[in-house]
Amino acid sequence: MPTIDEIKSQIKNIGHLNKLDKLFGFNEIKELPNIIQEDERIEEIVQGDYSGGDGILVATNHRLIFLNKKFLGSLTLEEVAYNQINKIHFKKILFLGKIIVHTTNKRVAISNLTVPEGRKFVASIEEKIASLSDDESTNETSTTQKSNNTSDTLSQLERLAELKEKGLLTDEEFNSQKNKILNG
Prior knowledge:
This protein is α+β, with helices and mostly antiparallel strands. Helix content is about 45%, strand content about 30%. It has a 4-stranded antiparallel β-sheet with strand order 1-2-3-4. The protein is elongated.
């Protein structure tokens, strides 16, 4: 798990440490070393109203983390993996706004964000989700191509076996052609 100094450094590197209020959000930041995994890094963070009080929404390279540490110590924590997000959007309400995340099972929101901050956060997450979808499409295409290649190989081997059975190929010719097909 990362230390509090490493967490602060990550937040500072994305340009937000000075923006987070010392009174509101600091208790949540102190909890992050217990929540963030070793291979995780903070990419975005916003502060607003969450779960009946001040809280933060953290985007890491793996997930979204909604966090509210109440004054007397109770902790509200919700995590959403990017592949579970059906929709994320920003809703402007007068001069402030709200980020709403929809999954199959729930809806989670953080409000009272500045409009530029909220829009930037949502755009960042939408980009992350789109890149994950592109990666999945690439994997599906690769799997389909492998399946097609396997199918082609089987067809070629079957055709080769038929030619051998008909006596059109010797054992030596059959083995030579089979090796060519199998070794690409």
